[in-house]
Amino acid sequence: MDNKNIYRFFLKPILFVLIAFLLWGIYSFTKMQTSLFPDVTFPKITIIADNGEQPVDKMMITVTKPLEVAIKRVNGITTVRSSTNRGSCTIDAFFDWNVDINLAKTQLNERINEIRNSLPSSVNIVVEAMSQSIYPVIGYTIESDKYGQIELKNLALFNIRPQFSQIPGISNVIIRGGKTKEFVISPIPQKLVSLGLTHDDIIVALGNTNFIESSGLLSDYRRLYLSLTDTRFKNIGELTEVTIKNDGHRIIKLRDVAQVDLQEQQEFIRINANGHDAVLIDLVKQKGVNLIDFTNSVNSKASAIQKHLPAGISMKPYYDQSAFVKNSIDSVLRSIYEGLFLAIIVVILFLRSFRASLNIILIIPVTIALTVTVLHFVHITLNIMSLGAIAASIGLIIDDAIVIIEQLHRVHEENPEKDKYTVVRESMKMFLPAMIGSSLSTIVIFLPFVMMSGVAGSFFKELTLTMEITLVCSFVATWIGLPALHLFFGYKQHKKLPVIEESGVPLKRQRLWWLIWFFNKPWFAIAFILLLAVSSALLINRLKTGFLPELDEGSIVLDYIAPAGTTLDASDAILKEVDKVVLSHPDVETYMRRTGTNMISGISMASGVIPPNYGDYLIQLKPGTKRKTEDVISELRDRATAVAPALEIEFGQRIADLLGDLIGRPQPVVIKIFGDNQATL
Length: 681
What we know:
By secondary structure, this protein is α+β, with helices and mostly antiparallel strands. A six-stranded antiparallel sheet has the order 14-13-20-21-19-22. A hairpin with a 2-residue loop joins strand 8 (about 210-220) and strand 9 (about 225-230). Helix 11 (about 320-350) runs antiparallel to helix 12 (about 355-375). The N and C termini lie far apart (about 90 Å).
């Protein structure tokens, strides 16, 4: 009796562990986060400063330059790039990839606070570390033919926004578009002069009113009361009755020296959805929240909100990132299933043994389940990188399993008199060094990818880690679990096969005569290798290059630039013709257009302030359309250029556009022109 044989005494516990791995992997799969790409925090911090309508040259001197000087004092910074417009500036600070971006953000805020007193008092500064989590993942439009933009914006701010804020995992609810009511006071110069008043007198008088403040506490009859002074205006009539001057002889009211009207506040952004003005609601999720679960919660809440909206108001989704992410992940999973199915067929055909094939069929899901468990433990998400690595590793998993199965059957055939437990123990002991060497040689191949830096290193590091984890799990599962499965399912009594010879030549050698013929003529192999080398050298420069493969997202980003100096109304008039082109396309389901300034964290993914002649579209194609997105883009480009030749138009897809902005620039090539003369430039 071999007391050292673990397979004799621990066969059932090993099988139990395999079942536990399988169940644990299924549980981990349901808890893992899903995303399109790995959650990479890019070494870029964007600083946006807003100072009203300050001229560009003064904005550059008083805001942009001091901020640049302060920012450059932060450790690890490599490049500072700024863009200054009227009343605003955007500064991009780039760091080394090995810098802790959260710590860098804290240091950068400290440097800005040091010079805060030297900046204009009215400047507003926003600092944001750039990552995928700061961009909206789902958006809705509020549209109505019955209600105006003021009512729609109030509904979005005070009704819809609080309800969306209740969703678990939400980070921000951004409202864009719509209009706000405001009182417009137009002083009458002749009356001001005749009464000896100035505009400052009106400003001071209004500053002393329209407030609510505490007047202190009052105790009376054993009760404590809080007294308030409320001078807020409830209507335009109360505003006109504000006292501007009281000299003891005459009381001058606001209505005596000015005309007061209730108007819509002037907006510098124009939102258009599906052919008419709309209000946008963009939802941003917290970092680390599962995108699919978050979207399901949002859709449930949106359905509940829609039921309580007033008649004539509709809330429609215009963008849903989870749809593309889910389709991408499902596509990769489908590729894994199909590849696994085809691999199993090949195994059954070539092994010619159902028992042996059954062992491999059972060990593959155990290996994948163990891999998913480890990925969940080390916080790697389900994305196209990690799933692609698992799909690519299936062949290696099957290869490890086949080698072990072949080894077990060979030793059984050579030693049919030995006990099956003894044969398995001797086989695994003899084959262990070769298994370790084979696995390590494959793992070492991927180590250079782990050491890559930059954007490529950040993305492919997760692919490499997943591949290495899969190979280690494959080694553990096949080394421990496959022999147990062989003993439990695949063992069959073997008989030693006699060697049959014909004419003195072994039968196996007769069947492989063509292979032996090529072995005896090595110049065939040398010529074939030279042919491959020459063809590779000639064709390598003809292959297209790129960071990621082209993605068919089903959504289109259209960035446009009207001629310089074009007003917001003029730009909107030009773009209404483009709206008709987009709406008339049979593959377009919905679209959203924005024109004008204050486009922060926008659809074009450009964080900053944009002039009124700039803007973008987000076009959502119909689900299930059979045409490629690139074909739709080509048609829209031709039609849009025909109806609006004055526009500069650039097309793209949202995910690629997002990555371009996170990396630094959406364009693959950027040319910088330097000079001291702005007019010449």
